[in-house]
Design a protein that fits this description.
209 residues; 5-stranded antiparallel sheet; 7 helices; oxidoreductase; Nitroreductase
Length: 209
């Protein structure tokens, strides 16, 4: 797989996660070792990675995630509610919403749940880019490494509605914040193709807006 292919075919995998096939912990460790090579502000490396494989804890996290997903889908601001005036994009959004609903019901069945975290005694007021910029690139590197090894992942954050409850469940200290919840599993089917995106010239601004 070339770098371009890896970068353009790493999709959010929801319905195609293989919920029955175990994922070796050594494979997850390989992906995390790669994630640790990502940039970190000031080289602080304040990240932590909670990997959940215990069935009861996965189910508990899945229950919280399902509750948050159902509220999100009923909110009127979910993916399926966007771009209703554009028939082509609306159809894509409905598929995204449908797959999000599926993952909401099955998150706890994913064989591995990865929660990237970062040390933060308190969230900065105003601009938080420096904080999350020291975690999210590493989480994306984890997902790319997983894709290169035949694993599917999905970037999710709806569980953060219940961040405190999940922190208590997993014993995450109060000075550590969660950044995402990444289900990890082998995927069904052969491969993935690049997603349809809006033309670059619609979003490119040279030397100013």
């Amino acid at each position: 797989m070339t770098p371009d292919e890896l970068l353009t075919t790493t999709r959010s995998v929801r319905k195609r996660l293989d919920l029955t096939r175990p994922v070796p912990m050594e494979l997850v460790r390989e992906c995390l070792e790669i994630a640790l090579q990502a940039p970190s502000g000031g080289n602080a490396q304040g990240w932590h990675w909670v990997v959940v494989t215990d069935p009861e804890r996965r189910k508990a996290i899945g229950d919280y995630y399902g509750r948050a997903t159902r509220a999100y889908l009923a909110s009127g601001s979910s993916a399926g509610a966007l771009f209703q005036d554009d028939p082509d994009r609306a159809a894509v959004q409905r598929r995204v919403s449908d797959s999000a609903a599926y993952l909401g019901e099955h998150m706890g069945e994913a064989p591995v749940l990865v929660i990237p975290c970062i040390e933060a005694a308190r969230l900065p007021e105003g601009n938080q880019a420096g904080l999350w910029g020291s975690l999210l690139p590493a989480a994306w590197s984890y997902m790319l490494a997983a894709r290169a090894r035949g694993l599917g992942t999905a970037w999710t954050s709806l569980h953060l509605v219940y961040e405190t409850e999940i922190a208590e469940l997993l014993g995450i200290p109060s000075g550590v914040r969660q950044g995402a919840l990444i289900p990890t599993a082998y995927y069904t089917g052969e491969t993935f193709k690049p997603a349809h995106r809006q033309p670059l010239d619609d979003v490119l601004h040279l030397d100013g807006w």
